[in-house]
Amino acid sequence: MSLDFSKNGYENLFKQALQNGISLFCGAGFSVEASDSNGQALPTGPALLDELKEQFPYIQSYRNLPRACTKLLHTDKGSFYSFLESRFAVEKFSNLYYALLGISIKNVYTTNIDDLFFSHL
Q: Contact at 8 Å (CB) between 34 and 42?
């Protein structure tokens, strides 16, 4: 069974939901069209681990992000947090995000640490 999003199907229900209010669930992919003050795209998992290894060479042997972050929290929490705050401060983003201003949003649930949603939209 396939969904019919035509005018005779679910399109009108979808448009009505956008007006009445929807909840957004946003993960790392949400911010792919945003960049920091240096014009660099915001990193996700493996790319973030690589950047952390450059910034904090003593975690070079770590192969996964959660363990590397745990090590940083225990050894250099202040510098780690400063890096994350700086790296995930959105400076530029695609105008496509402004489309969200035309819908009624009831709730935003996000796993992201960037400030795109709350500082710019």
A: yes
Sequence-separated (6 or more) residues with CB below 8 Å from residue 41: 32, 34, 35
- Residue 86, pLDDT > 70, answer yes
pLDDT, one tens digit per residue, over 34-83 is: 999 999 999 989 999 999 999 999 999 999 999 999 999 999 999 999 99
C-alpha to C-alpha distance for 23 and 4, rounded to whole angstroms? 22
Reply yes or no on whether the pLDDT at 23 is more than 90.
yes
10 three-state secondary structure: coil
* The token pair that represents 48 in the structure block: 């973030």
φ/ψ region of 81 (left if φ > 0, alpha if ψ in -120 to 50, else beta) reads: alpha
Burial of 61-90, coded b for 16+ CB within 10 Å and e otherwise, reads ebeebeebbebbeeebeeebeebbeebbeb
